[in-house]
Amino acid sequence: MISIVTGGARSGKSEFAESLIKGDAIYIATAENYDDEMDLRIKKHVKRRDESGIKWRTVECLKNFDELSGEEKYVLFDSLGVFVSNIMFSKTADDLSDKSIEETILVVRKELEKLLDWARENDKELVIVTDEVGMSIIPESKVARVYRDLIGTINKEVAAKCDRAYFVCMGLEVRLK
């Protein structure tokens, strides 16, 4: 079973996604700890997971998801938005050409396909957390518009491949499929 959970910033999507995990789990962390604010965010997430009563094994992984291993039944991937931005900025840092953007999309699709295939082949319950960024104003900068379009496209493609999809707003979840 593969689920996707989306919502805006501070909507409660990670907490809800964690509530879908019912046993020992792999936590695929995509965020990089690059400043004090991110350090606090990471510590808050870790503390919440530690208090859940579930045994979590954290794996910091940005690629090669097909090489993951473990006996855990559940896998939480948090988050697709950070994963996409990491690849986007590693591939298109100074180049926002259509060609560079298309290359980024291809890399993201390839890596996500590995993750989805691995989960299905290994009978894992995968929960993917992602950001909904398309319901707001049109971003002023080109890089922000490119990111918004990339994550919107990828979210749509991944959701189509998931068994369940949820939207979280103001701490309330709605099952979409």
- Whole-number mean pLDDT: 91
Coarse structural class: alpha/beta
DSSP summary: helix tally: 5
The major β-sheet equals:
7 strands, mixed
Principal-axis shape equals globular
The secondary-structure element order is EHEHEEHHEHEE
Output the CATH topology: Rossmann fold
CATH structural class: Alpha Beta
Instruction: Tell me the strand order in the biggest sheet.
Output: 3-2-4-5-1-6-7
Protein name: Adenosylcobinamide kinase
Pfam families: CobU (PF02283)
Function: Catalyzes ATP-dependent phosphorylation of adenosylcobinamide and addition of GMP to adenosylcobinamide phosphate.
Enzyme class: transferase
Secondary-structure topology with pairs:
Elements: E1 2-7, H1 13-19, E2 25-29, H2 36-50, E3 56-60, E4 74-78, H3 80-92, H4 98-121, E5 125-131, H5 142-161, E6 164-169, E7 172-175
Parallel strand pairs: 1-5, 1-6, 2-3, 2-4, 4-5
Antiparallel strand pairs: 6-7
Keywords: ATP-binding, Cobalamin biosynthesis, GTP-binding, Kinase, Nucleotide-binding, Nucleotidyltransferase, Transferase
Protein name: Adenosylcobinamide kinase
EC number: 2.7.1.156, 2.7.7.62
